[in-house]
Design goal:
Blueprint (H helix, E strand, L loop, with lengths): L1 H36 L2 H5 L6 H5 L6 H18 L5 H37 L4
Length: 125
Amino acid sequence: MANKDRNKRSARQARQRERAKREALAAEQSAKEETKRGKRKAAAQAPKKTPAKVASGKGAGLIARTRAYFGAVRGEMRRVTWPSRTELTDYAVAVIAALVISGVAVWLVDTGIVAALVGFTGLRG
């Protein structure tokens, strides 16, 4: 039993060391990014809470949460890479072609099933 506990403890310690390494690496990378941007002053100050983090608290009202949600949506929409006009037409043609092909395939299968049923049962139309 002691050996089993020792193995668990060493596994926990190994995970803890690994987590500490990842956190140190992440802190180092974020510090490099901050210095590249010339924002040493911001790194020295306490990090400010974003509206989404403030609004996600238990005491936040409906209006604050809604405002935070739409702010997050606006931020995501700024990051979207929109297709060009030619890409959009190419995609639209591809979708329409796929719909036509799928429709024909379903029609053929349906016609085959109906023909099989009519042939099997001998009933007409």
